[in-house]
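Predict structure. Chain length: 207.
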Amino acid sequence: MPLAIVVCGALTIALSAELTKLAWLCLVIGLLLVLVGVGVSVWGQARQFGPFIDFNKKLEGWWWERIRPDDSAAISLVRIEPNATIGTLRLYGRVFDKNGNFLANWDSVDSCVNPTTAKLFYYWTGRSRQEGSEPQNGFGEAVFGFPTEGLASAHGTYSDIGLVKGGKMATKATELRPASREDVAVVFGNNAESTKVLVLDKIKKFG
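Prediction complete.
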């Protein structure tokens, strides 16, 4: 045991006014074994979690999320970013209806990814901008495609626990495409009309 060897060396030093060759040997061997153990542990963790970290980095950025059917929410501008605190991803965004009106804000509570299948799962919560509205929550899933030129799009589903019909949660189809910095600047600017024009244009481009 490396710890026992280090303790052995320390005791030898304490009991002797003069550092003996045996003490030096114990210390050197112990320290080497400790360093090797730490190195193996770090390598093992990097090998185990490396694919998850790489996958999360690929997803980081702003996305347009088209929602169908669009009887209520039609499109969302979504931010995906690594959550350093818990080692997963955080998602948050703004939701608009098919007329370009700002409906709600939402944020993920938790998420997980599967790099092998390029899937993202998350649990979200949000609240409408209408005064007195109740919090909403549900689940989301997205499967990303990785073409040779980089991340291009994703398809998935979105559900709202509050939208239960016939004993089942209403599930809607989603499609994600990257958003530009200019898009983000417009949506988070102070011009509601410019935001509406942009949102309507994005809805049209999704088809």
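Summary: Residues 18 and 120 are 62 Å apart (CA to CA).
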